[in-house]
Write a structure and sequence with these properties.
Blueprint: H1 2-7, E1 11-14, H2 33-48, E2 53-59, H3 62-67, H4 71-74, E3 80-84, H5 100-109
Parallel strand pairs: 1-2, 2-3
């Protein structure tokens, strides 16, 4: 925490591609990584306390959303999630209405997320 305070760092953003599922071909992964990710978030929140932000980048596709993260355990511990999409604006958005994905995420988390 010394370096965070010394250099004015306001938090930490994780980018684990991807817990419990294959990302880049040949990339090692294990089903236990879903729990490992949760335990990492718990340990980081304990260390950071509430003085620093804790966020993570999430894959913007259903396999990731359904298999990589224990949302019920993780969401109370993080400040927000950065949703990765294939390109600016992404395939998750229609500028005139929320996407099916956004509706599904809202149903899973109880939170409405603005993605456009």
């Amino acid at each position: 925490m010394f370096l965070f305070k010394k250099y004015g760092i306001d938090g930490l953003d994780l980018d684990w591609e991807y817990p419990a599922i294959e990302g880049f071909p040949g990339h090692k992964y294990d089903a236990a990584d879903k729990n490992n990710f949760t335990e990492l978030i718990k340990a980081l929140r304990k260390e950071l306390g509430n003085d620093f932000l804790l966020t993570f980048a999430a894959g913007g596709f259903l396999k990731y959303l359904n298999e990589s993260v224990d949302w019920d355990a993780v969401m109370p511990l993080v400040d927000f999630v950065n949703l990765m999409t294939p390109r600016p604006g992404g395939w998750l958005c229609n500028r005139n209405r929320p996407s099916y994905f956004a509706t599904g995420l809202q149903a899973r988390t109880g939170v409405c997320h603005q993605m456009c």
